[in-house]
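#onboarding

Welcome to the new folks! Below is a worked example of what a typical request in this channel looks like: someone posts a single protein sequence, and someone else replies with the predicted structure as tokens. Don't worry about understanding the tokens yet, we'll cover that in week two.

Example request:
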Amino acid sequence: MRHPPNTIGKARGREPHARKGDEGNGPERAPRRQPSMENQAVEQHELTHPPAEAVQLTAVLAALAEPARLTMVRTVASLAGESDPTCREVWDRSGLTAAKSTMSHHYKVLREAGIVVMWWVGAKKHIRLRRELMDVRWPGLLDAVLADQPAPAHGRSAGSGGRVSAVHPRALEALVDRVPRP
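Example response:
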């Protein structure tokens, strides 16, 4: 819808060609100062995670079937001795070269499957495996996944442009078979 020229600025309470912040005759405003971070506590909040009883084995296995997510889980586990790593540290140390949006999607899938817990501290998102949950619900599953080494790529080279899966379907079945059942 096209407005007549004399009503464009009046709808917002300013002259038609006035810039935002250019109020005219009032005193000039001083530039806004950013608050000092020295005396402020860093805000920390958790993201939403599925409750323990809602975590399903099929969702866990589906999330771990993607080679990039499996690499991310292994990297988080290897960094567990240090303080809880940030998502950026996991990305850097895993050697994955995916786009930021792709990595964000992988983190979301792992979180929604119940494999990891994530929370914000300031501007950094931290990540930790939900090892306690995994060991109670499916004893040995996480250890079996972390101990298993990726299978060598068959058929295509990594530079061929095709997707190379590091987990063979029979290898995933063998992993599930090795997990003790209660």
